[in-house]
Amino acid sequence: MATHDIPQNGSEDWHSPERHYLAEEFADDRQFAMTLARGLEILHCFTARDTQLGNAELSVRTGMPKATISRFTYTLVRMGYLRINRLNNKYQLGAAVLSLGYPLLASLNIRQIARPFMKELADHIRGSVSLGMRDRLNVVYLESSRSSAPMSHPPDVGLSYPVARTAMGRAFLAAASREERTALLNQIKVRTPEDWTAFQGRIEESIQDVHARGFCLSYGDLRREIHAVAVPMRPMADGEILVFNCGVSAFLLNEGQLKNDIGPRLVSMVRSIEGMMGIF
Fold it and tell me: Entry's PANTHER family (predicted)?
């Protein structure tokens, strides 16, 4: 499946604030703390590619005046969410950001249950097996296992990719309630119209595939050299929907292997994990 007309964006790329929220949506919402949202948006400016940013760069990315940025960065440094690189006086994310995520990971005992299953399958397919959940218009990795086979851009905990561009994201859409799916698709149309234009057909196809056979496929939609398959879990007790995926370097795959072998194996793995957790 050709993808040459589709930008190959990953989580190392910065996205404008509109990808996270639209200020006008909350203009009349007295409960929405816009100042807090703007402060948090500064933290979203940092990526795996852009790990160090100055006030001027943060101002350009957020659209906020430099004076406002300076107050925010000063506060975030004092609270440990940013730190100053003394070599160039630019800001980097601080350790407090990492500590925020640990309680979430610790609360998901599925990571420990799934780990041996994931490693076994990753070794068998000579690729990676990851677990993720939705974060607004993205999916974020919570756990990942990979084989010793070479793989460009290996997955890792915390990586985040667009829902529309990934098998994992589209599997989530298929498993979501009709109301949640409709709302999320509307957000994709409004906030990331380029993704909607490029991937609308594949989203619809993926939803049909999950309902028909339990998994959906991606032939290089995110990265040309990586093909993927994803399977959503049944909802957890709290209603959260988690998704597993397999990623394999395209040159390692035989024709039809993703659909006829890896997809069914991933479905079987997910059903086994659900059984161990009492999810039926």
Answer: HELIX-TURN-HELIX TRANSCRIPTIONAL REGULATOR, ICLR FAMILY (PTHR30136), TRANSCRIPTIONAL REGULATORY PROTEIN (PTHR30136:SF33)
> Is 17 domain-assigned?
no
Written as six digits, the tokens of 175 are: 């498993």
pLDDT, tens digit (0-9, with 9 covering 90-100), for 259-272: 999 999 999 999 99
> How many domains does one find in the chain?
2
pTM: 0.88
Tell me whether residue 12 is in a domain: no
The alpha helices in the chain, defined as continuous H runs, are: 34-44, 55-62, 66-78, 95-107, 110-125, 167-175, 178-191, 193-213, 257, 263-277
Residues 198, 6 contacting (CB under 8 angstroms): yes
Pairing of β 90-93 and β 128-135? unpaired
Distance CA 144, CA 130 (A): 4
DSSP string, 131-164: EEEEETTEEEEEEEEE-SS--SS---TT-EEETT
Give the residue from 71, 99, 127 where a domain finishes.
99
Nearest to 163 by CA among 94, 105, 232, 114: 232
* Crossing angle between the packed helical segments 167-175 and 193-213, to the nearest 10 degrees: 60
Residue 95 sits in the same domain as residue 160 = no
pLDDT digits (tens, 9 = 90+) for 41-98: 999 999 988 999 999 999 999 999 999 999 999 999 999 999 999 999 999 999 999 9
β partners of residue 144 = 130
Tens of pLDDT, residue by residue over 101-138, are 999 999 999 999 999 999 999 999 999 999 999 999 99
- CB of 126 closer than 8 Å to CB of 147: yes
213 C-beta neighbours (distance < 10 Å), count: 13
- Find the domain containing 80 and state its range: 33-99
95, two tokens: 């350790």
The token pair that represents 271 in the structure block: 């059903």
